[in-house]
Design brief:
single chain; mainly alpha; transmembrane; elongated; 5 helices; membrane
């Protein structure tokens, strides 16, 4: 193996580690947030500081929770098992959409303090989409 090949392999390994860290952080965050929405009623969510849940339909809250849990699982399971690993990119893209919509709701409600969190989570999810597409794609199981 030449020096160039060794450096390329190390660079690829670094991207892979960084992407796994991002995927793990996102998965933990969205699993926690989604499970909370699935397990709690709107009054409990409002008491936790999620004011938007006060006027949101019950089924919308549950749908958002389910989408977040599915996204969290999609970030990890396809990539870890190498069974249809392209689903990891789709899960990350779906979480990007959720964060754009969440930021829009918070802006409309005047909850500007929450928007930076949405932007950071969006950026991490977009990083996963980009990284798993360009820098460290995961090959499907042979």
């Amino acid at each position: 193996m030449t020096t160039i090949e060794t450096n390329a392999a190390q660079t690829g390994k670094g991207w892979n580690i960084g992407l796994w860290v991002a995927q793990g952080l996102l998965a933990a965050m969205f699993m926690m947030a989604g499970a909370t929405k699935l397990a709690s009623g709107s009054a409990e969510l409002v008491a936790m500081g999620m004011g938007w849940a006060e006027n949101a339909p019950f089924l919308l809250i549950k749908f958002i929770g389910l989408a977040e849990v599915a996204g969290a699982l999609g970030l990890i399971l396809p990539a870890a098992t190498r069974i249809m690993p392209h689903l990891t990119k789709l899960a990350a893209a779906g979480l990007c959409v959720i964060m754009v919509l969440a930021a829009g709701v918070h802006i409309l409600r005047g909850e500007f303090a929450v928007v930076p969190v949405n932007l950071v989570l969006f950026a991490l999810a977009a990083f996963v989409v980009w990284g798993r597409t360009n820098k460290a794609p995961i090959a499907p199981r042979a």
